[in-house]
Amino acid sequence: MKRILTMLFMTLSLFVGLSFTADAQRVNGVDDFFAADYANILREEDKQLISAKNIAYENKYKDKAPQIVVMTLPRMSTGDIESESIKIFEDKKIGSADYDNGILILYDLDTNKVRIEVGYGMEGSIPDGMAGMILDTYLEDIKASDKAAKSRGLTSVFNDVVTQVDADIAEGGIKATKASVWKSFKYFVMNNPEMMIFFLFFMYAFGVSTVREVKDREKINFYQEHGADEFLIKYGITWVAFYAAYMARKRAAVARAASRGSGNIGGFGGGGGFGGGGSFGGGGSSGGGGASR
């Protein structure tokens, strides 16, 4: 009997402990999963705003809810803002596993660097080019020495990201679509117009040369039936898309190299020991893209 009572007491204590932990994550309207202010930068009202929007997503979209997390660190564990953001993204399991719709806005106080890390499912809402433009808009506040200015800048970044996500949801729902791919390509073209003009000219010349050299009778009949122009348009656009993806990866590599510090920095462990956070957090994976400043 004594053994049974002991086990019952331990079980009850466990449930009470779990309940306390869950309640502790949301105090005064602040959820420390969504507003993870380890560097003590964010103002209380800003943390409440960040939490409220994410909780509203949960209430409205349930297991499809996007998650937009703002985190500040006193010091990174990796010395590289991109590596740190990916590590935290995976450890915190930001976004839904099925929709990969998480976004992390990460600021490191020690290096004064900031990054928007975007899950694959959110690339249509926040392509790399747009992530960079959003950061540039508020970079002066984020880089300021005044913590209130930093909080204002990071919260403004959050609000702009939310605006884009809401617009994308209103347009096509919570899903990764071909339209999202087009958006990413459109922003790449906007940021690299000279490269696109050069490459289109190159592909036109290449297409003309290819048409002239084709000897296969079936292919010649195809060109005669559909016209060389259609061939050039279809295959030209395909190659431009491949080139755009290549350049995007190249620019990401350059950004990674530029953002690396001088070796690993000891101190705060970016990914360890995070609470489970939002009720529907479930395992989005990073790798979709983003931008660092």
Describe what you observe in this structure:
- The protein is of the alpha/beta class.
- Among the domains are: 35-176, Diaminopimelate Epimerase, Chain A, domain 1 (Roll), CATH 3.10.310.50; 192-254, no CATH class.
- It is 58% helix and 11% strand.
- It has 10 helices and 7 strands.
- The protein has helices at residues 2-24, 44-61, 81-92, 128-137, 139-143, 147-172, 178-191, 193-213, 217-226, 228-259, and strands at residues 26-27, 30-31, 35-37, 67-73, 102-108, 113-118, 289-292.
- The strands form 2 sheets. The protein has a 5-stranded mixed sheet with strand order 3-4-5-6-7, sandwiched between helices. It has a two-stranded antiparallel sheet with strand order 1-2.
- A hairpin with a 2-residue loop joins β1 and β2 (30-31).
- The chain is globular, with a radius of gyration of 24 Å.
- 34% of the residues are buried.
- InterPro entries: TPM_dom.
- Residues 37-141 form the TPM domain.
- Residues 1-24 form the signal peptide.
Give the helices and strands, then pairings.
Blueprint lengths: L1 H23 L1 E2 L2 E2 L3 E3 L6 H18 L5 E7 L7 H12 L9 E7 L4 E6 L9 H10 L1 H5 L3 H26 L5 H14 L1 H21 L3 H10 L1 H32 L29 E4 L1
Parallel strand pairs: 3-4, 4-5
Antiparallel strand pairs: 1-2, 5-6, 6-7
Helix pairs in contact: 2-6, 8-10
